[in-house]
Write a structure and sequence with these properties.
With 254 residues, the protein is of the alpha+beta class. Helix content is 17%, strand content 22%. Strands 1, 2, 3, 4, 5, 6, 7, 8 and 11 form a 9-stranded antiparallel sheet that branches. A two-stranded antiparallel ribbon has the order 9-10. A hairpin with a 3-residue loop joins strand 3 and strand 4. The longest helix is centred in the first third of the chain and has 12 residues. The radius of gyration is 17 Å and the shape is globular. The chain starts with 20 loop residues before the first strand and ends with a helix.
């Protein structure tokens, strides 16, 4: 893996779990995310565990669905294929308070299990509320991109993919050639996630959209219900946690 400089703020210990603004430093540019630590406290605490233990350093964006989601937090490249998986701290309770509108970050999870999120998350590239706010108990939004950060996210979202993995300088001819592997320069990596502002009230100036579609009394069966969610919700939820690992195992481990 690449060696990265660790921000001093990342070494603050338990107090850093209250940080509400973090910066994603990526190979395609930096952007900031305001975390909703007061309204989704369990999810933010879970996310910050990975930050404080440096487990997001070197992870790649392993799934891109244009005009839908950009996903990371699950895999990293250690010089060979298949990709290595991020070590998990375990699952976290679902907190579907906010809506999956464009520019928000939400937790990925396994289909049919609302409380199955671990390390993986995704950025909503468009308003996905009609689908993701209702299926599988609702996908937990725990922050939003601030400032001009979506310019960087959108830049990554315009890259070509190999399978569903966004890569740079890796043609479709190379992607279709089983003997050609992408390397560190091709993957979109997160060099660090650093704390910018640890004032727990930074979200006071924001007006996140509430999830009003999910009713507490609604039965959930992975998204295959009649409340307006997509009938493919269960499958989508499973794929949210698979993606890169499955693709590269099939492609290179023969």
């Amino acid at each position: 893996m690449l060696k990265y400089v660790i921000s001093a703020a990342m070494l603050l210990g338990s107090s850093s779990t209250m940080a509400t603004i973090v910066e994603f430093q990526t190979s395609q540019g930096n952007f900031q995310v305001n975390l909703f630590n007061q309204t989704t406290p369990k999810t933010v605490e879970n996310f910050m565990k990975y930050v404080n233990e440096d487990r997001y350093q070197g992870v790649i964006f392993h799934r891109l669905e244009p005009n839908f989601v950009l996903q990371g937090g699950g895999f990293f490249y250690e010089g060979s294929i298949p990709l290595s998986q991020v070590e998990s701290f375990g699952t976290v309770d679902n907190e579907p308070v906010y809506s999956n509108v464009r520019g928000t970050i939400a937790m990925a999870k396994v289909g049919g299990n609302p409380d199955s999120a671990t390390s993986q998350w995704f950025f909503n590239l468009k308003d996905n509320s009609q689908n993701l706010d209702v299926q599988n108990g609702g996908f937990t939004v725990f922050g939003q991109v601030i400032g001009d950060g979506m310019e960087v996210v959108d830049k990554i979202a315009k890259l070509e993919t190999c399978g569903s993995i966004p890569l740079v300088d890796f043609s479709q001819d190379k992607c279709s050639d089983d003997q050609v592997n992408p390397d560190e320069s091709n993957f979109i990596s997160i060099e660090a996630v650093t704390i910018v502002d640890d004032n727990e009230n930074t979200a006071d100036t924001l007006t996140p959209v509430k999830n009003t579609l999910l009713k507490p009394t609604e039965p959930d069966n992975g998204g295959d219900n009649n409340n307006g969610s997509s009938s493919s919700g269960g499958l989508f939820s499973v794929l949210m946690l698979m993606g890169a690992g499955v693709f590269f195992r099939r492609r290179y481990n023969r």
